[in-house]
Amino acid sequence: MELLFSPSPMHGSYNLSLVALSVLIAMLASYVALDLAERVAVARAQASGSTNTWRVWLVAGAVAMGIGIWSMHFVGMLAFSLPAGMAYNGWLVALSVTVAILASGVALGVTSKAALRLKTLLLAGFAMGIAIAGMHYIGMAAMQVDAILTYDPVLFALSVAIAITASIVALWLAFTLRRDGEEEVVNWWIRVGAAMVMGIAIAGMHYTGMAAARFAPMPEQTALHGMHMVEGGHLAAIGIAAATFLLLAVALVSSLLDRREQRRLRHQLRAADADLAEQTQVLEKTTAQLLHAQKMESVGQLAGGIAHDFNNLLTAILNCSEFAADQLPPDSPVQNDIRQIQAAAGRAATLVHQLLAFSRRQVSQPRLLELKIVLKHLLPMLRRLVPEDVTLVTKFTEATTQVSADPVQIEQVLVNLIVNARDAMPDGGTLTIEVAQTKLAEDRTGWDAGMSPGEYVLLTVSDTGIGMDSDTQARIFEPFFTTKEQGKGTGLGLASVYGIVKQSGGSVSVYSALSEGTRFNIYLPSQHGLAEDIYPTLPSPASGGPETILVVDDDSVIRSIAGRVLTRAGYQILEATNGVHALEVCKQYEYAIHLILSDIVMPEMRGPELGRRIGILYPGMKILFMSAYAQEFNTGNGELNVPFLGKPFTPQSLTRKVRETLDAPVSSHGSDGAVLAGQLT
To answer: If we measure between CA atoms, which residue out of 592, 597, 587, 590 comes closest to residue 546?
Structure first.
């Protein structure tokens, strides 16, 4: 084939049906190109390690696209006919197909990248355009015709320019319209429109290139005994088109199946992510609760560590000041100073008790209570705590509300909550106390991590006050944390509420918002049985007597104070420094010892061991224990069902508890000391 201009050109003609078929192939191939570009991009984005799925899609897509584009060009050439013999060189045809496939592979590879810079787009589009133009003109070279083939330079350049421009636009559309695995679906008509534009551009490039071709008769014609387009072009074009449609259909079906699988996997992944997020939320909440509990426990250990010695000191201050007051005339000016000392010591004792309540180391004497009765008994006192501009409302359920708790501690909880609500309503409002039965289901989430499913008595104290923000709520139960001005609060009221409720096996939560009030919910495990009458009408016991009492304590100050108080009350007093010494005194003393008043923690022999031995050696002897905090009993929960006197004590509380213990019947299990020893084993 010589590229010379012929003075006598040969005029060819086009079969319009095959031209339309070639344009249709170009559009379909363009649509498949856009669709497969998305598949390759998705697979490449998901590729990790040795995963080669995206490369498989790249090769398959390049083959489908390349053959589709080549088929369009070849059908377009078959649509053209000349009055001359014509045949094709098989090697050049194969080369043109290869070029088309390689160009398609480059296109898919470029558009599958996460980012496409303008420079890369232009260079890749230029290379792809040259390759497509090369495919076209290689196909033209494969056409062996009985004519001299030359090209119009202007149309030749225009066809190459169209190829490059179409390639750049195609790459840009393929990159822009891909979804990268997202759920959102590109409107199908946008992709169809883009495919039509690309198809027309590709077809335009082909027919511009065909228009650039000039055919002229050869000087000495030697007819080729091959096929003539006019005679066999229709069947060849239909066969190529059918094979191309089948190949593109397979590519589209594969893409559709992959897209459905990706959608299913995305749905599963999002469901797993949602489940993981929920579990993470629960874990974070549980972790926060654990850290909060550990922080509370640390403060509680600190409080318990100082409680014993501090309460012994307060015992000395309270009783010695009482002794001093008794020795002075009532009108002595020193009396007022002594009362100030006693008041300060009393406030200090209250602070220690609140710390111990918070840390769950306060000695608890639980009883089966009807909570409604406790509340009704407290109502007159609670009403005195709130000003006249605060309306106190009570809502009690008709059902039983029995709980196992220390009635004194429950009263302490209520008083602290009422005072807290009162202070939150400086301009008045409504304070509501509610008692109800509730049941927590097993699948209920959001409750305290330590709560178990079951029946609970719900005590709610709510107000219409100023409320709290989330930061305040997060610290509301911390000891010494207070929002009140200096001197107005210790920051231990709600901390003690938290400790008492936890010690009683329950849970407390707070719900509040600024300017919307606050609600405290207290959950106590519901109990069944015959509730005790904790408010019986009994005559006050006598405060003294002639009995003999052995005071056992390693602290000489406590022994001296207790002995002095009890001696003044008429009792005969013996003293011992520890459990071993107490047993020696009991053995050597010739007369009956009616009561042992013993500390818990002592050197050589602790109080519980002393109680066990007393129960064996002297079954009728009674024992009254003294202690600063529940941890000394080591019963696990601070609960005690034997006579007990907490420190610090006053002369009145000591004589009252001693008389009460002496008048109580002896336990059927032996002495009270033996009962305690059984609890501590």
So the answer is: 592
